[in-house]
Specification:
The structure is a single chain. This protein has about 200 residues and is an alpha+beta fold. It folds into 2 domains: about 1-50; about 70-200, TATA-Binding Protein (2-Layer Sandwich), CATH 3.30.310.70. It has helices spanning about 1-25, 40-55, 60-65, 80-90, 105-110, 125-135, 175-200, and strands at about 70-75, 95-100, 115-125, 145-150, 160-165.
Length: about 200
Amino acid sequence: MIKRFVFVVLLAGFFISVTGCITAMEWSTRDEDDDEYIPPKKVAVEKKKNSEKKGYNPQFTDEEEEIPDIYEAVVDMPYEEADLLLRSALEEENFKIIKVSHVTKGMEEQGRKDFWKDMNIYLVCKLSDGYFVLRHNPQLVGFCPYRVYTYRNKDGLLVIGMVKPSMAVRYMGNPDLKAIEILKKHDFQLKRIIDEITSK
């Protein structure tokens, strides 16, 4: 009877110690002898640190949230002057204007005189960056080229606006940190262009 009791106690102790070891173990498919081996928990921490350093974050920061999805600013100047300034500023930032759609002109050709004046849509892009934005997410081509636009409001002031490029991030099927960085960079470049023109 005593032997059985001692055997049960030893067996219970063995199971407890084995269970503790299993709980403490970190499983990995890599060989620990490999010089590049990093335990899984450390990998997660490193990725988080690197993403904070580089500014990569699928969630928008407070600074980026200040730019609404549709950003507009107004200026009191003739459209022809704003058009020249806009084309020049876009070129300086290496944006290519693919096409300008003259919406007001099209409406007037249809006989509609009670429409917004000076409404135009500039389709702009950076082909060099387009590769990185679209290579893993071809469905985002619907957001490219970007839209910058003008129209004259009811007060007679010229509105210059844009649809924020990084809106496309919400529709990424395959999150791509490089593409996110580029789209957010373009947000600020286009905003800066609009702000510079409308501050004159």
